[in-house]
Amino acid sequence: MILTEVDDLGADKEWLRLWRADDHQHANYTVTSLAVGAAHYTRLYYLPAERDVSEYRPCAERFVPHHLLASGPDGPVAGLALTVEVLPGRHRLSAYGRPLMLVEDRTAPARLRRQAAAAIHTRIQELTERYGAERYHARDYLVGGEISPLTEVLLRHGGVSRHHFTQTVDLRPPAEERFAELRKNFRKILRRDRGGFALDVVTARDVTRAHLDDFVRLHLEFFGKTLRTRASWDSILASVRADEGFMVIGRQDDRPVAMAYFAVSDRYCLYASGVNDADSYGSGLSHRVLWRAMEHARALGCVHFELGEQLYPGMYPDLPEKFRAIGHFKAGFSNTTAARLDVFSAPLEAP
C-alpha cells in the first residue's frame, strides 16, 4: 500500500478517480463545500459545549493541508481530506473544520481497504504528534449499514463513538411515490395555488453576485444579525459557480421572499442553508423550496437528499424547543432516518 499526500484535491487525477469511485460522495466533502466549512464552524449539538470539538469560531487562523491518498496495485483505494487547523494556542486535525471522512472505492478487496485505513491512521497519528494536535474525530456515514475500515482502526486504538441521526430522502422512487409519503399537511400546502409566487433554480449557468446579495439581505432581515462571515457567503457563491451547489429562490410578485443553498455531488444533495422573508414565516415557503430542490437534485442524478440532523427530545432535553421544531419539520419530508457515527480519537473526558 502506497500512501501519498495530495496538494490539490480539485486537480489531482488520482484523487478525482477515487472520488468518482466512492458510491456515497457526501456533498459536504466536495472541494467547494469544504471551503464553505472552512469559513463557518458549526458545533455538534449532541455534545455539551465544554466537550465540543472546538468553541465557536468563524474560521481557523489558517489550514495546513495534508490530504492523504492510499493506493494499491490497481489504483487508489481510500483517502481523506485532512488539514491541520491553526487555532489560537493550539492545533486540531479536521477536513477544513469538518470531521474527517474516509473516501473509499468499496469495490476494492476488503484486505486492501483495511491496509489503506491502517496506513492513513498511522499518518494521522504522526501528524497529531508533530503538531501536538488535540483530539480529532471522524464521521462515518455507515454506508451499507457497516462501519468503515477507518472507524474500526480508530476504535481499536482507543477511540470512542457517539451516534446521531439525520433526515434523508431516497430520491430513486418516482415523484408521485415520494409525494405520497409527505406529511398530509405538507401535501396540502404544495397543492395549494399561491398567486404571484414562482420558484427558480439558480445554477452555475446563471448565478450572479446579485443572487447572493438577496440571500444575505433575507438572512439579515430574518435573524436581525449575520450568522456568517463574508468569506462564508463568498464560498457559497463559489460553490454554485463550480456546479457543486445550487440555489432555489422563491419570489412573490417578483420579490425574493425565500432562498436556500444546496451543496451537491454526483450522488448526494445536502440542504445547507435557507431563510424566508420574516413577514412570510409560517406560510409554507420552505415546503415549496425544498420540494423543488429535491426534484432538481433527482434530475441531476442524485440518489440521496439530506435535510439535516434529527434532534429527538429524549436525547437532547436541554436544547431549545426551536431545534426540535426544526427537526419535526424536516421529518415531514423524509422517507428515511439515517444513523451517523462520530468517532473520537480519545475519550471525551480527555483533554
Please provide a brief summary of the model.
The protein has 2 domains: 170 residues, Aminopeptidase (3-Layer(aba) Sandwich); 131 residues, 3-Layer(aba) Sandwich (Aminopeptidase).
Provide a descriptive summary of the structure in words:
The protein has 351 residues and is α+β, with helices and mostly antiparallel strands. It has two domains: 2-165 and 339-344, Aminopeptidase, CATH 3.40.630; 172-302, Aminopeptidase, CATH 3.40.630. The chain contains ten helices and 15 strands. The chain has helices at residues 13-21, 31-38, 110-131, 149-156, 175-180, 184-191, 209-223, 230-241, 285-300, 321-331, and strands at residues 2-6, 62-65, 67-72, 75-80, 83-87, 90-94, 103-104, 137-140, 160-170, 197-202, 245-252, 255-264, 268-276, 304-310, 336-344. An eight-stranded mixed beta sheet has the order 8-15-9-14-13-12-11-10, with helices on both faces. A four-stranded antiparallel beta sheet has the order 1-3-4-7, sandwiched between helices. Strands 2-5-6 form a three-stranded antiparallel beta sheet, covered by helices on one side. β12 (255-264) and β13 (268-276) form a beta hairpin. The longest helix has 22 residues, at 110-131. It is globular, with a radius of gyration of 20 Å. The model has no long low-confidence stretch (mean pLDDT 90).
